[in-house]
Write a structure and sequence with these properties.
Belongs to the FAD-binding oxidoreductase/transferase type 4 family. The chain is of the alpha+beta class. The protein has 17 helices and 19 strands. It has four domains: 90 residues, Uridine Diphospho-n-acetylenolpyruvylglucosamine Reductase, domain 2; 119 residues, Uridine Diphospho-n-acetylenolpyruvylglucosamine Reductase, domain 3, CATH 3.30.465.10; 116 residues, Alpha-Beta Plaits (2-Layer Sandwich), CATH 3.30.70.2190; 86 residues, 2-Layer Sandwich (Alpha-Beta Plaits). The protein binds (2R)-2-hydroxypentanedioic acid and zinc ion (ZN).
């Protein structure tokens, strides 16, 4: 079920709490006025608006620890927040949480970059794009890449185990983190900033915090893995013969292009149409309408790989095998960028077509075509006129199965179908052995759905971990797990 979207007035904070916060973070680290708070409680689609009495912005790990201790002393809950670009409202405080927001944006330093060790130590509030650029300056590459990279923060990427467009080659954020610094729910600082590729000394605690959505502690810094800078990239925009051909096409690409393949993204005709209609500076790379497209990219750290030759041979064989209708191979960086601009506009341009109900699903890659046709049939028979908008990381078996409202329908009438449509789609996903949240996490938006589908044993083990690390349930309550009474 969707969280409430109406701000409600909050219970007053205990006497002396705000002055104590101000003593820790100073004037510029504390927002208490409605206009300053509003962007921090509004999720990026503008659909959910939460409420909080203040937003605190510590400048150091020591300040984070002091803020958390103060909250512990007064039983005040904390919602850690990065760039507030998430899609499941994990970084927003809702009125019922009675929480303050702890925003990490002032902690934005690169603490260290070690090109020989291929690591970089960054604070949680660093913007992802700044990290990519700092790595590039040192002739290195940090592969995490997503549409919001100009504003999302690495702490949020780690807390949500973000995916993005390079997962097929480099894995999710989880695979890119070597060490973490975390302020625990008690306000202690855990220095786990190890720059090691091998450390087999017990439970891998950092993995517990990665993807925990701020429910176990606050990530304040991380050691990230770097890779050799990419010297060569090849990008192709392909018109598929039919959706069923996407999995064998990926197989062919993997056998001919090998590990240089980093992206394999699905784009339906409807997304291209919306992008051409609402986006800026968007062109149709093929000029001919096809039902499904693949945007594929490979890159290499050395020019010897001769990617253009590999690509040409791949495209020839794909044509010969009848898997594709047509393809455009980017001739230069500007053309490759224009293919990606189209991909990056998909979410924004869907917004221009009215209400969208999103599903971020994974099924085994080979089952994606069957999933899309089953789900389309089910939602179209439930709500005639609905516009399925399935796109995304098909190479990872992950599709954003978004549903645009029937044209002309009132948006609120459409959104009234939210829960029912979620259940129709997710039943099919789970029946096919899939996941109801492949990369966006659970947050508040998918809480009930996750409880419905996850086994009681898994939920119980998660609750036991939560209870042992945050016994007072002050860290992001009501996200990922249901609120248990505060003890
Ligand atoms: C993407 O892959 C993002 O573009 C956003 O994960 C997905 O809008 C969405 O549902
Ligand atoms: Zn995505």
């Amino acid at each position: 079920m969707a969280p409430s979207s109406t701000p409600v007035s909050l219970p007053a904070l205990p006497d002396g709490f705000l002055p104590a916060l101000k003593r820790i973070v100073g004037d510029r680290g504390l927002l208490t006025k409605a206009e300053g708070i509003l962007p921090h409680v509004t999720e990026q689609r503008g659909r959910f608006v939460g409420a909080t009495a203040c937003v605190v912005k510590p400048g150091t790990t020591g300040e984070v620890a002091q803020v958390i201790k103060l909250c512990q002393d007064h039983d005040i809950a904390i919602v850690p927040q990065g760039g507030n670009t998430g899609l499941v409202s994990a970084g927003i405080a809702f009125a019922e949480d009675r929480a303050i927001i702890l925003n990490l944006s002032r902690m934005n330093k690169v603490r260290n970059l070690d090109p020989l060790n291929n690591t970089m130590t960054v604070e949680a509030g660093c913007i992802l794009q700044n990290i990519q650029e700092a790595a590039a300056k040192a002739d290195r590459f940090f592969p995490l890449s997503l549409g919001s990279e100009g504003s999302c923060q690495i702490g949020g990427n780690i807390a949500s185990n973000a995916g993005g467009i390079n997962v097929i080659r480099y894995g999710n954020t989880r695979a890119l983190v070597l060490g973490l610094e975390v302020v625990t729910a008690d306000g202690e600082i855990w220095d786990g900033l190890r720059s090691l590729r091998k450390d087999n000394t017990g439970y891998d605690l950092k993995q517990l915090f990665i993807g925990s959505e701020g429910t176990l502690g606050v990530i304040t810094a991380a050691v990230l893995k770097l890779f050799p800078a990419m010297k060569e990239r090849s990008t192709a925009f392909i018109g598929l013969r039919q959706l069923d051909d996407a999995p064998p096409l990926l197989g062919l690409a993997q056998s001919l292009i090998g590990e240089a393949l980093n992206s394999f993204e699905l784009i339906p005709r409807i997304a291209l149409d919306f992008a051409l209609k609402h986006g800026q500076d968007i062109t149709d790379p093929l000029g001919q309408p096809y039902d499904w497209y693949i945007l594929l990219e490979a890159s290499a750290g050395t020019p010897q790989a001769n990617l253009p030759l590999l690509f040409e041979s791949f495209l020839e064989q794909a044509l010969e095998a009848g898997l594709i209708h047509d393809a455009a191979l980017a001739q230069n960086t500007a053309q490759a960028d224009s293919f990606w601009r189209l991909r990056e506009n998909i979410t924004l341009c869907q917004k221009a077509e009215g209400g969208s109900i999103k599903h971020d699903i994974a099924v085994p890659l080979s089952a994606i075509p069957a999933f899309i046709s089953k789900a389309n049939a089910a939602v179209e028979s439930y709500l005639p006129g609905i516009r399925p908008y399935p796109f995304g990381h098909i190479g990872d078996g992950n599709i954003h199965y978004n549903l645009s409202q029937p044209p002309g329908m009132d948006i609120n009438d459409y959104l009234a179908h939210w829960d029912r449509l979620n259940r129709i789609v997710h039943d099919i996903v789970v029946d096919m052995g899939g996941s109801i949240s492949a990369e966006h996490g659970i947050g508040r938006v998918k809480l009930e759905e996750n409880l419905h589908y996850k086994s009681p044993l898994e939920i119980r083990m998660m609750q036991q971990i939560k209870q042992s690390l945050d016994p007072k349930n002050l860290m992001n309550p009501g996200k990922l797990l249901p609120v248990s009474p505060r003890s």
